[in-house]
Amino acid sequence: MMTELYDTFDKENHLKPNFDISEFETLDSWDFGWAILEPINIAADKESEKELSKRFSPGQKALYFFWYLDGEVTNGGFIQFYWNENRRYLPAILKGLKLIGDQQMVSLVENADKIYSKNREKFEAGNSQEDFEKLYNELSEFEDLDLKYFEMHDNTMSLIEKYAKQNTNEFLNLI
């Protein structure tokens, strides 16, 4: 995994957008998360994302990379997360979850990764929609993790919101 690509923070080039203070104070949960993510979610592709991520503070990285996990798992479970080759973000996701103090989600994601690691060849051998669908039948142990994820992800977003509101300077310039 390419941890070094996501570990760097170029403070001199920090991407810190201006943000309306009244929105900051009134938005919450997923609406808040999306509102502070949207102005930094500007990478055109995976290559430009590597450079862009260097401009993110640790808190911004926590939000940004969690959004990858959440988008995939809520749409197709952990199988979809791995099938779409998002494992490269795992170091950044885990680091972000630890930063915000979400040890339960860290454990869940680590458990999913253990299952993936045991079955990596099934993911790597597949290349069609049929292969993708077959994984759901063959790897039913992901089902419990997916269900737990759905129970927990709102708490993760609450922890990200709490962290962002306590560390505003890491995310935004309030105007």
Automatic annotation (TrEMBL):
Highest taxon, organism lineage: Bacteria
UniProt domain DNA mimic protein DMP19 C-terminal: residue ranges: 55-167
Matches recorded under InterPro entries: DMP19_C (IPR025402)
One Pfam family from the record: DMP19
Name of the protein described by the UniProt record: DNA mimic protein DMP19 C-terminal domain-containing protein
Organism: Flavobacterium magnum
Taxonomy of the source species: Bacteria, Pseudomonadati, Bacteroidota, Flavobacteriia, Flavobacteriales
